[in-house]
Design brief:
6 helices, single chain, five-stranded antiparallel beta sheet, alpha+beta, globular
Length: 191
Amino acid sequence: MTPLDALLTRYSVGPKHLVEPGPSDAQLALMAQAALRAPDHAELVPYRFKLVRGAAKQGMADLFAHAARAAGKDEAGAALDAERALRPPLTVAVVARIDLGHPQVPAHEQWAAVGGAIANFLSAAHALGFAGKMLSGAKVRQPAIAAAFCAPGETLVGWIALGTPARQPAGPARKPEAGQVLIDWHPPCNT
């Protein structure tokens, strides 16, 4: 697969379609290296990737189930949320460290760096034969879950579910053609 093929054929695969094996430590290091190549003004690296595997998966499942109950879900809903934490071979929590007072790099540029890192991480996973999906939702804002993953001043962005795809995507592409996002800009007319 060429680098451009990796970018043009990457797709999201949800946790229920991910199976073992997950990436090795060496493959994860390559994914992190790819993330570190994303544009990043002043090289702040305003993100961290926290690996959830082994016994830690059960700890995350317990957090998810507790949060589900606190949100008013019944036991079936809590069990479903717990299963979502256990299903992927590997889950990677994405944590942002945005310096709101940075004298040179405004917050929106730091957030762009976080997004670029996530995209590169997922593209590298795809190039290595894995699949994944970025997940977020209300759980990232749940105080106990956020506190479990974040130090003060950090924001839980979400989780990347990773593993080997059990199936290839089917159905039509849902993204627009390139012409719908490429727009010629013209300067405003002076009157």
